Amino acid sequence: MNDFNTWLDPLPLVAILRGLHPDEAPAVGDALVGAGFRILEVPLNSPRPLDSISLLAERYGSERLVGAGTVLDPARVRDIADAGGRIVVMPHADVAVIRAAKQAGLYCVPGVATPTEAFAALAAGADALKLFPAEQASPAVLKAWRAVLPAATAVLPVGGIAPDTMGPWLAAGAAGFGIGSSLYAPGRAADDVGARAHAFTQAWRRHLDSQGSNA
User: Sorted alphabetically, which InterPro entries does this protein's record hold (predicted)?
Assistant: First the structure.
């Protein structure tokens, strides 16, 4: 299995498709893929989430990383893998879920809100960390974390992220973001999702251009 950073490097934005219905999955997935998104997460508290994961995984094969979010029980990991999911994302840092995901050969990105949780998650095998909820923290908090976390640790803030709020987080050391309701909401048309996805992609590209001009 490739290092998780190989999925983040081209575009480190995770689409969180909470509430996605399987009937919507192909059109919404195509809109996101068309905007360059490479990681698609269907939270398990969505309608028939395993069906959506299976549809998306089959549609994009190895070209996109598809999996589940809001994974609370280690017993669900096998269901996710059987559906074709290859990543487990969590709102918390339950080491039992992390270990189950790694034993199944899946990537795992647990949610952490403190350095204690962050280090415990990494020790259990986490591939990256989800700073959640980001509204509870700040770029200054992330900057302090970066001073003590292993340098290669990817930290992705999740919660309240918009194209025009990414800059301070990136300056503080964020490796990317998980994006939920500002990207997808139940019933939102695929064209609208695509337009929002392109806005995030363009914001990320502007950040890269800015880095290059300041180098």
Answer: Aldlse_KDPG_KHG (IPR000887), Aldolase_TIM (IPR013785)
Q: For position 197, which CATH number holds?
A: 3.20.20.70
Contacts 24+ apart (CB under 8 A), 161-166: 161/134, 163/199, 163/200, 163/202, 163/203, 164/203, 166/203, 166/204, 166/207
Greatest alpha-carbon pair distance for the chain in Å reads: 48
Residue 36 domain boundaries: 4-213
* Tens of pLDDT, residues 71-97: 999 999 999 999 999 999 999 999 999
Give pTM, 2 decimals: 0.96
Helix or strand (DSSP H, E) at 155: strand 155-157
Output the CA–CA distances (angstroms, integers) from residue 79 to 101, 129, 164, in the order listed.
11, 23, 37
- pLDDT tens digits for 179-214? 999 999 999 999 999 999 999 999 999 988 876 666
Catalytically active residues are: 41, 130
For the chain, the domain total comes to 1
CA 152, 159, 120, 38: dihedral to nearest 10 degrees?
-50
